[in-house]
Amino acid sequence: MSSLSSLLVVALAIVSFYSVSTVVVTYTATFEACVQGLTCPEGNPSRFNHTFALNGTLSPNVTLQVGDVLRFDLETNVPIHPLTICRNSPIPKFCQDANGTDVLNIPITKAGDSTVAVFTRPGTFYYGCNYHPGMGAFVNVTRPTSLRKLFQHV
Ligand SMILES: *[C@@H]1O[C@H](CO)[C@@H](O)[C@H](O)[C@H]1NC(C)=O
Ligand SMILES: *[C@@H]1O[C@H](CO)[C@@H](O)[C@H](O)[C@H]1NC(C)=O
Ligand SMILES: *[C@@H]1O[C@H](CO)[C@@H](O)[C@H](O)[C@H]1NC(C)=O
Ligand SMILES: *[C@@H]1O[C@H](CO)[C@@H](O)[C@H](O)[C@H]1NC(C)=O
Ligand SMILES: *[C@@H]1O[C@H](CO)[C@@H](O)[C@H](O)[C@H]1NC(C)=O
């Protein structure tokens, strides 16, 4: 009986630790030149030929797990390209015209600005410019498949 209750205590401790653990996935975001049909994302307007880069990679897809926080630290001034994280955005919009509850962060435009979004359910989300298509990519959020968070947290 006592070993059963101590097992329960351990199990509860693990569950509560697990549920409060949060992984913050941080990227430095810049706005970089890209080449149409090669490194520009689908839909990128040829009058810009630019897209966001995360940690130096042009428009990478981001994969997260439920509960993760996605953080962007902007290092380029982008007055007409607010960096936005959103849902329900048809391809290749990547957050163009996203508004209301589809916008998951506070869009940012100034070097030095940071923004975050918390993902509480699995699914396909996006990041990109709030005003123009083809300047972003997918944020795919999956259910945790392991005790990864337990170990990343410590
Ligand atoms: C991106 O770069 C920053 C700064 O070097 C680093 O702290 C962060 O962990 C990197 N993000 C990813 C997802 O690797
Ligand atoms: C963007 O690239 C396209 C195709 O390479 C080119 O026709 C266009 O002039 C470029 N636009 C700018 C603003 O450089
Ligand atoms: C992101 O994923 C989409 C859909 O699978 C794919 O078309 C695109 O090439 C990927 N982008 C990068 C940069 O890997
Ligand atoms: C939000 O975006 C949708 C789709 O682009 C548009 O129909 C709607 O008018 C927009 N709402 C606001 C308040 O801007
Ligand atoms: C992200 O999800 C979309 C839509 O389900 C899928 O087309 C794409 O391949 C996924 N990309 C990655 C990198 O998992």
Automatic annotation (TrEMBL):
Highest taxon in the source lineage: Eukaryota
Gene3D superfamilies, per the entry: Cupredoxins - blue copper proteins
Sorted UniProt keywords: Signal
Endpoints of the signal sequence: 1-22
Protein name (Swiss-Prot/TrEMBL): Uncharacterized protein
Source organism (scientific name): Adineta ricciae
